Structures are given as C-alpha cells and as structure tokens.
Amino acid sequence: MAGVSTPELAAAVSNSGALGSISVGAATAPQAREMIYQTQALTTAPFNVNVFCHPPATRNPAKEQAWIKQFSDMFHSFGSAAPTALDEIYATFCHNSAMLQVLLDTRPAVVSFHFGLPEPEAIQALKTAGCLTLASATSPDEARLIAAAGVDFIIAQGFEAGGHRGAFLATEADARLSTSELLLLLQEATPLPVICAGGIMNGTDIARVMQQGAAGVQMGTAFILCPESAANTAYRGALSLAKPGETCMTSAISGRPARSLNNAFCKATRIILPENIPDYPVAYSLGKALAAAAQSAGEAGFGAQWAGTGAHRARKESAARLVEILAQEWQHSSATIETHH
Asked: Which keywords belong to this entry (predicted)?
C-alpha cells in the first residue's frame, strides 16, 4: 500500500489486535527509518514493513522519449509541459545495503517482500535479527521459490487484489488465478502457511478462506477509506462511488500490471501495447507527472487509484473500528459455517 499506508494507519490496526503494515517501497532509506520510528512511537504491538524487490529497470532512451511524446498533447491540454526525461523513481530492496541496515537497526516484527525476493544474505540477516518474513506469490512456481528461500509465510495474491501484481517469474504467463484457486494450489506446492490477499473485504470473506485452510488474510482496499490512510480526496471520492466490476488491470500508469479503479487514465491508455511501455518504475515517473498536471487543471482521474475487485464494498470507518467489525463478522460467519457442517 505504498502511497496510502501511514504510521497512523499501521499503528491503529496493530493496536486493535491485527497486524498493521507500512510500505517503504516508495521511500528512501532515511524516509523509511523515519516512518518506522513514527510507527514504533504509536504502537508497541508488532507491525509489518513491506519492501519492493523488483529488478532494476532496463533503460531504453528511445522508448522513454516515445512514451513522453505519446502523452505530450495530454500534458498541454492540462496547461503543463511534458517532462523532458524520465527517472527510475523507486530503488529496489535487492542489494540495497542502506535499506537493509534500516531494517536491521529498527527490527520490525515482520518484513514482507513484493515483486520477488531479495538476495539470500538479506533474508538470512533479517531472520537472524528476529524478523518474520513474508513474500507474495501469484503462482505455485513462485511459492516454491519463496519456500526454498527460507521465507516464513507465503502471501497468495489472487487476481482480485488491488495495486501491483507481485508476479516475479518472467518465464511464465500470468495465469490470473483467483485468491481461492491460488490458495489451494499453494497448499499443495509447499508446506508453508498461506495468507490470502485479493477481494477480501469483510468477515464473511475472511471466514471463507480460513475455512479453506488459509493461515490469515491480508487486506488493503478495505482500509483505504479509513481517515488514517493517506489517500487523497479524489481517490476517496472515486472509491466511495465505485460500482461492482469497475476496476481494471493496467500497466500504463507504472510500467507493471496493477489493478486500479477504472479512471480517466485507464480509459485513455486502454489500447496501448505493453511492449511500448517503459520499465517499472520509469513509466511511473511520467504517470505521477501526468497525475499532478491533471490535478492542477481540476481533473482528478489520472492518479494511481489502486483498488481490488471488492472496491464497491469499501467502508468508511476508523481503522480501529473496522478491525473490530471485521473480527465480529468473521466470528459470526465462522460459527455459521461450523453449524452448516
């Protein structure tokens, strides 16, 4: 939840008995350290720190210039000039000694990896420091690699999930498995406990996957409307008005497939071919510039409004109250399932 997670949100969730999470994927090492310190100041309970393990971008100046040119008219329509060059705006956690040192110094209870795995030495160092480790998988092959790397938990990221697909095996096409389908396959593939992510919005959803053997659930979209999240007014407004079926997968915003509310940016880039898009996160530097230009011209639909397929079921509650409601719904639904068995 890079961009919307905050120390306040993570701490409120952890203080309510769930595991709060902050993403430092979009942060520099000093910024990450500050975010972790802020969270530790607000809670003594465990929380998760999420890092991005994407491969460094392969730069292609011609492709990047063509990408800028493709959007120059759009920038002008918003009264702004298009950028002259693009940047690799997020550093990967892989071979990132500064970010690893931040985690070893601050020792969060849990560290989770998205977009792949860091080098074995980094995983070993985190485990030695007492951190539990989690990693996202979208296929059984990815799960087997995660298990072989000595990670403690696998996150089954179903195709329903909002935000970026965590897929990291370039050799296989995305099978787009649903959360429930993926859970069953991952249970067969490895002995590790599996946490489900994707389309889980209420206690009934939680009970359903727990009944199927999930060790837990990870929820993102459900918490975006909480006052503690950093989502801006436009994002909150669009999410509040979302209707069923109104999310789509897009690579045009960032350079990697991600599930978003079907906003103006998604509609404007629907026919773009994936091979014309610069690598993540280089494409994202244009996406962010375009969103800012649009915003300044009063057009709010160009931001990265990530959301899962359950977007229309998002609730506007404080984080603490939402955790309480989810726990009550889950217990009620679990009892109902037991009765029917």
From this structure: Detoxification, Flavoprotein, FMN, Monooxygenase, Nucleotide-binding, Oxidoreductase
Find tokens 């702004």 and name the residue. 80
pLDDT digits (tens, 9 = 90+) for 212-224: 999 999 999 999 9
Q: What is the CA radius of gyration of the chain?
A: 20
How far, in Å, CA of 304 to CA of 59, rounded?
A: 22
Assign residue 198 the CATH number of its domain. 3.20.20.70
Phi, psi of 146 (to 5 degrees): -65, -45
At 303-330, the pLDDT tens digits run 999 999 999 999 999 999 999 999 999 9
Q: Structural domain of residue 17, as residue ranges?
A: 1-54+91-231
Would you say the C-alpha torsion 41, 45, 46, 52 has a positive or negative sign?
A: negative
> Residue 341 — pLDDT band, cuts 50, 70, 90?
low
Q: Within the chain, where are the H helices?
A: 7-15, 29-42, 61-77, 97-106, 120-128, 140-148, 179-189, 203-211, 233-240, 264-268, 282-296, 319-340
Report the distance separating Cα 78 and Cα 228, nearest Å. Answer: 31
Q: Which two tokens stand for residue 207?
A: 């009970």
Domain for residue 338, yes or no?
no
In contact, 36 and 49? CB cutoff 8 Å: yes
Helix axes 203-211, 179-189, angle to 10 degrees: 30
Tell me the CA distances in angstroms from 326 to 161, 178, 228, one per residue in order. 18, 22, 17
SS3 313: helix
